[in-house]
Amino acid sequence: MASCVEAQNLLHQSLQDSEQNNSRAEPRSLKQKRAGPEELWGRVLSQQQRHRLKLNGEAESHQDNLPRA
To answer: Rounded to the nearest 10 degrees, what angle do helices 2-24 and 37-65 cross at?
Structure first.
């Protein structure tokens, strides 16, 4: 349960940071500027999934290079 609360806190902090950055930066499209928590969390998950896929792909390629018994 604690990790879920920590994730929510990190997400909330990143939302605040991005809103502060957006107010200083050049205006972007409204959709990009107003990314909701679900969209941001989806990005975090997709980054983790891409990382896992990359690791799995590397593991499979190393297995292909092993000599067959």
So the answer is: 110
Q: Per the confidence metrics, is the pTM higher than 0.70? A: no
With CA atoms as reference, report the closest residue to 40 among 21, 17, 14, 20: 14
**7-13: long-range contacts, CB 8 A cutoff, minimum separation 24:** 7/41, 11/37, 11/40, 11/41, 11/44, 12/37
Q: Using one digit for the tens of pLDDT, what is the confidence trace for 4-31?
A: 788 788 878 887 777 666 555 555 555 5
Cβ 14 vs Cβ 43: under 8 Å: no
Q: Are 34 and 9 in contact (CB under 8 A)?
A: no
